[in-house]
Amino acid sequence: MLNQERIILMTKMASYEKNEGKKNDSIMNYFRGDYVWLQVMKSFVCGTIAFGVVFGMYIFYDFEVFMLDIYKMDLMEFGKSVLMKYLLVIGIYSIISYAIYCYRYAKAKRGVKLYMNNLRRLASMYDKT
Amino acid sequence: MTSLLVAKQYIRKFYGKYEIFLVPLWKFVIAFICLMQINARLGYMERINKMTAVLVIALMCSFMPMNFIIIVAAAFVLLHVYALSLECAVVVLAVFLLMFLVYFRFSPKDTFVVLLMPICFLLKIPYVIPIAMGLLGTPASAVSVACGTAVYYLLAYVNESTATLTSMETEEITARFRFIIDGILANRIMVVTIAVFAITLIFVYLIRRLSVDHSWTIAIIAGALVNIMLLLVGDLMFDTNVAIGGVIIGTIVSALIAVVIQFFAFHVDYSRTEKVQFEDDEYYYYVKAVPKVTVAAPERKVKKINQQKKAHPSQRSAEGKRTNK
After folding, report:
1. A47 touches chain B (CB under 8 A)
2. Residue pair B64/B53 in contact by the 8 Å Cβ criterion
3. Residues 6+ apart with CB under 8 A from B216
4. Checking DSSP bridges between strand B284-289 and strand B274-279, what pairing results, if any?
5. Which stretch of DSSP H or E encloses residue B287?
6. Which terminus, N or C, of chain B has the lesser number of Cβ atoms within 10 Å?
7. How far is residue B68's CA from residue B80's CA, in Å, rounded to a whole number?
8. What does the alpha-carbon distance between residue B272 and residue B20 come to, in Å, rounded to a whole number?
């Protein structure tokens, strides 16, 4: 016989599975450390590319002056200052992305926990009948 | 007022039922308007200026996810700018790359704002976006609003300096490059506008989150006032020569549109008809879950005017009998 309560619960769970569940599962497939580390790596690469783009524009902007100066200036000092700026920018960006992905993992974990609770309730409903 | 509420419920129901048709239509319209505007303002490449190309691509966009429209619009802009001058294309490409790499890794949903911002600027109502995103979004939307504003000012600058750029063709690449970058970085109006919009958005967001009555309406009005004030302050401090009349009128129109948005405040995720399938040991289930439309019962105020109570006839005769005794 059709048990209405069970059907309503199953419908809610099926709709969760279709929408949020897919995203949450793909996040929860990783351990927390692995997931956050992977995403921070991706942010690192993106940040490096972005820094490269900005640096390239900066060089190209003053290209002639740069070409003349390159023999006169202290390359070590220039390199060091660029490296310091790069580390600073990448550091801040990595910290921000670390915070964001930790938060996202926690949210996904909560969603999955809710789903598992519903699943347990459903199983107990089946055991009762 | 009640007819408005009834209309709102009707539109919600209509939207919930026909969403599967309305969303692609909506995407097509947005893509079409966007591409037509890009072609109109920046039509430097002849091949993509044609109506057929625009129609076909807009049709494609209606079936793809929202972010596809952004990519197509960015591609169109790049192609037009490339036809104008290579250095322009490099700068615009660099700006887009920076935006996508740094910010849109985190919230791919907000790319819609970047698309709407230039369109609203062209319609002279850019102030609607910070107020609306403050009502509907999070403070992080301030970054997408800033990106949208930057894109608009960048393209406006390219548009303005078309003549200069074509006349500079004889000069070296670096000189043209410097010209473009100088124009962008020295654009004080852009910086002031971005700052004002970001502050307005955060302001609207904070007020909206207060637990007072009518917090949304207060947020809209406060946001509009803050917007006007800050733009005037920016004009005084940085000498940006903003047209004050235009700002005030634009802000009023934006506030009205924001009121309309507040009225509807569609939360699309929760008002959809969902079709799900599942099975258990006994049955296969094909379930269609239709969201309930809450009937807004119009509030009725009953005013009681004190009436003289007419005595019941049997009571009267009983009283009569008693008094007669």
Report:
1. yes
2. no
3. B135, B208, B262
4. antiparallel
5. strand B284-289
6. C
7. 18
8. 9
Q: What is the CA radius of gyration of chain B?
A: 29
pLDDT band at B293 (very low <50, low <70, confident <90, very high): low
Site from B98, B104, B110 to mutate, A interface, most A CB atoms within 10 angstroms = B98
Residue B308 has pLDDT above 80, yes or no: no
Residues of A in contact with B274 (CB under 8 A): 15, 18
* Domain boundaries along the sequence of chain A: 4-128
Task: Render B16-35 in DSSP notation, one character per residue.
Answer: HHHHHHHHHHHHHHHHHHHH
Structure-block tokens of residue B264 = 């509807």
ipTM above 0.90, yes or no: no
The DSSP bridge partners found for residue B279 are B284
**Angle at Cα B53 formed by Cα B48 and Cα B54, nearest 5°?**
90
Q: Is the pLDDT of residue B165 over 90?
A: no
d(CA A122, CA A126) in angstroms, rounded, equals 6
Per-domain residue ranges of chain B: 85-266
pLDDT at residue B265, as a whole number: 66
| CA distance linking residue B278 with residue A127, whole number of Å | 19
Q: Which residues of A touch B101 (CB under 8 A)?
A: 46-47, 49-50
Structure tokens at B13: 């129901």
